[in-house]
Design a protein that fits this description.
The complex is a heterodimer of chains A (391) and B (90). With 391 residues, chain A is α/β, with parallel strands linked by helices. Chain A contains twelve helices and 15 strands. In chain A, helix 1 (9-19) packs across helix 2. The chains are: A alpha/beta (391), B alpha+beta (90). Chains A and B meet through helix 8 of A and loops of B. Bound molecules: iron/sulfur cluster (2 copies).
């Protein structure tokens, strides 16, 4: 039986990765991810975990280590943040193209400049097109659950793609929370041993990552695109199995008090819990506001999202990163595209909030909902606003 | 070849397939040897980075255009100026 503990979320993340019987951990410390790999080094040093712990000299090497180890058939883990992810990005494309089921926790943090170690979603959004599956946690329990889920999905022979579990830097990584930590038996019942389909083995030589001439590159990308789209039902299935075993349920798109809501807030990550409080408050005042939380960022669950959004009159999309796009953050751009594709056109307001660790409060969500409702009533053009920026 | 035929991760599951890689497709110039000038020294054979030349029964060196990518090294190294690079025509 597992146990309920009060634990720092980073430590819990490391504990569950340890329970997953990883073979190779590549570690480079970067704030606010550091505690995750630090605790894994303790688990290995203390003999609780029989794994190769590889302290590397950069994140580029961290992902390279994971790629090499995964190609040889090992279960691998690493973790990063922000600039560290940026340095690692080159190899992240290779990991997904080679279809290696690496799992990585990203402690979300703003990108420089100016140097900022606090939380936003710049790194998550930068990772958008690397071909990795990306899930997002809202609290410590979900970090543990999603890491376990990540290995199960990544290693499924129908998927074989790397998975990134996003957790907000500091607001999650450095919090002590009540967490239900599974035990080894429970983990093993959920996560079968990894059986690589193909791997580097001198007895059966093969070449990973050969040159792909113009005649084959397009086909290779198409195959990857199919794998990513095909991963969605497997991700959902793994969550259903998770619910059966652990009783906690996850969905690509999750809702909170959306019944009959005219205005829907759309959020990603830990800020969703503040948004829930705001929705409770607004509902108590008789305002028809609900909340939609995106659990899965890649593959993008467009159909599921549109299904939820289509009943609302207006949507307030809360982005936590910049896209320097056409008056839309990265999430809103995608939401608008999904709505257009499905022939649905609610009124959409985009708010860029909580950049570089700036607080997003209950009052902020009330303001966003009120402005959206006002814009809708007055027929104002669909808006784009950086919340609380000083003019 | 359809995308469905690709091995997982575009892996080459069969060793030695580089021998089937037609590097000659990249060529815009091809080396042509004038055997009247050639002294059979073998410099072209030694310097060619793609092992294009092979020795014939008479001791001359013959190019295999399947692999020759047209770099011109052989023509530059030939001490007798026996090799000319000529425009490839399709
Ligand atoms: S042109 Fe280059 S590749 Fe071709 S035969 Fe000469 S040296 Fe070899
Ligand atoms: S380098 Fe020139 S002279 Fe020497 S074998 Fe080749 S073609 Fe003949």
């Amino acid at each position: 039986m597992g146990k309920r503990v009060g634990m720092e979320v980073s430590i819990a993340a490391a504990e569950v990765v340890g329970l997953c019987d990883v073979d190779v951990i590549a570690a480079y410390p970067i704030t606010p991810q550091t505690h995750i790999v630090e605790h894994l080094s303790e688990l290995v040093a203390d003999g609780h975990l029989d794994a190769e712990f590889v302290p590397v000299e950069s994140e580029h090497s961290a992902m390279s280590t994971c790629v090499g180890a995964a190609a040889a058939g090992a279960r691998t883990f690493t973790s990063t943040s922000s600039q560290g992810y940026a340095l690692m990005a080159e190899i992240c494309y290779i990991a997904s193209s080679l279809r290696l089921p690496i799992v990585m926790a990203v402690a979300n943090r703003a990108l420089s400049a100016p140097i900022n170690i606090w939380n936003d979603h710049s790194d998550m959004m930068m990772a958008r097109d690397t071909g990795w599956i990306q899930t997002v946690a809202e609290n410590g329990q979900e970090v543990v659950d999603l890491l376990l889920h990540a290995y199960r999905v990544a290693e499924d022979p129908r998927v074989l793609l790397p998975v990134m579990v996003n957790l907000d830097g500091f607001t999650l990584t450095h919090m002590i929370e009540p967490i239900w930590l599974p035990d080894k038996d429970e983990v093993q019942r959920y996560l079968p041993p990894y059986k690589p389909q193909i791997r580097l083995d001198p007895r059966n030589p093969m070449t990973f990552g050969p040159v792909g001439m113009p005649e084959v590159y397009t086909e290779a990308k198409k195959a990857q695109d199919e794998a990513m789209n095909g991963a969605l039902p497997v991700i959902v299935e793994a969550w259903q199995e998770f619910e059966k075993q652990f009783g906690r349920s996850y969905h690509p798109v999750e809702t909170y008090k959306t019944e009959g809501a005219e205005i829907l807030l759309l959020t990603v990550g830990s800020v969703s819990e503040t948004a829930m409080t705001a929705v409770d408050k607004m509902r108590a005042q008789g305002r028809n506001v609900g909340l939609v939380r995106l659990r899965l960022w890649r593959p993008f669950p467009a159909k599921e999202l549109v299904n939820v959004l289509k009943t609302a009159k207006a949507v307030a999309v809360v982005d936590r990163a910049m896209a320097f796009s056409t008056r839309s953050g990265p999430l809103c751009t995608e939401v608008k595209a999904a709505l257009y594709d499905h022939g649905v056109s609610p009124y959409v307001q985009n708010y860029i909030a909580g950049l570089g660790g700036r607080d997003v409060t209950v009052e902020d969500f009330e303001m966003m909902a009120a402005k959206t409702s006002d814009g809708l009533a007055k027929g104002l053009p669909m808006g784009y606003e950086i919340v609380n920026v000083r003019e | 070849m359809s995308w469905k035929d690709l091995a997982l991760g575009c892996t080459l599951t069969e060793p030695g397939t580089a021998a089937r890689l037609r590097t000659g497709d990249w060529r815009s110039m091809r080396p042509v040897t004038n055997y009247e000038l050639c002294n059979k020294c073998g410099q072209c054979y030694i310097f060619c980075p793609d092992m294009v030349y092979s020795r014939t029964a008479e001791g001359y060196y013959e190019a295999n255009y399947f692999y020759c990518k047209g770099c011109g090294i052989c023509a530059r190294e030939c001490p007798k100026d026996a090799i000319q690079m000529v425009q490839e025509e399709k």
